[in-house]
């Protein structure tokens, strides 16, 4: 997703086994190497072979973790966290307000924890057609995750049309917010932009 949820505090995170920790360490190393190389020489000039060398892994390892170069830029570890946070919201809270709270918290946190990476990712979404196209493709996977959480909260099936339309609309709004923010110099308050976007879903476009 364009904006990612923040991981829970250390004392709330499930303990990962050695294998899972090694996988996470490798994924992070590949992603950090990618952003570093892109900052130095640009997206198009950065190859998977260069990324592998910088991350001290083989090209086949890079492809095992990330099927495409665009996936390295777009993939994060936080979709399951966002699903859990939505499920944990108050039972009587409207789904749109639950999503709003989780997205606002995610954006506010990532701008504190990883502002440079998020800014670079957003800029690539705006400027690189391949990244933007891949983001649209991967949104389907995130939509399934979001549909599970929303269906669970509303007592519906995740395959219900209304659930699918709702989740697709929210993700489309988040995509447009990210691109709008990047295209306007990354100066606006992202939380405010998210509110504006979700308000437009709630109330429609006023005349």
From TrEMBL:
DNA-binding annotation, residue ranges on this chain: 47-66
Source species, domain of life: Bacteria
HTH tetR-type domain span: 24-84
Keywords: DNA-binding, Transcription, Transcription regulation
DNA-binding keyword on record: yes
Entry annotated with the keyword Iron: no
Gene3D superfamilies in UniProt: Homeodomain-like, Tetracycline Repressor, domain 2
Designated name of the protein: TetR family transcriptional regulator
Organism this protein belongs to: Streptomyces camponoticapitis
């Amino acid at each position: 997703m364009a904006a990612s949820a923040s991981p829970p505090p250390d004392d709330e995170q499930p303990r990962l086994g050695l294998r899972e920790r090694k996988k996470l360490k490798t994924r992070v190393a590949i992603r950090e190497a990618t952003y570093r190389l892109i900052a130095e020489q640009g997206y198009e000039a950065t190859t998977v072979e260069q990324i592998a060398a910088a991350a001290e892994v083989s090209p086949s390892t890079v492809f095992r973790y990330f099927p495409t170069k665009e996936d390295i830029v777009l993939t994060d570890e936080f979709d399951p966290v966002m699903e859990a946070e939505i499920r944990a919201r108050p039972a009587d809270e409207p789904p749109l307000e639950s999503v709003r709270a989780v997205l606002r918290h995610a954006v506010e946190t990532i701008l504190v924890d990883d502002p440079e990476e998020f800014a670079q990712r957003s800029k690539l979404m705006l400027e690189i057609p391949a990244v933007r196209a891949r983001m649209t493709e991967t949104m389907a996977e995130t939509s399934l995750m979001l549909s599970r959480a929303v269906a669970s909260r509303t007592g519906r099936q995740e395959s219900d049309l209304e659930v699918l339309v709702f989740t697709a609309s929210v993700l489309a709004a988040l995509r447009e917010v990210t691109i709008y923010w990047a295209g306007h110099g990354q100066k606006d308050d992202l939380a405010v932009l998210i509110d504006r976007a979700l308000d437009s879903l709630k109330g429609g476009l006023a005349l």
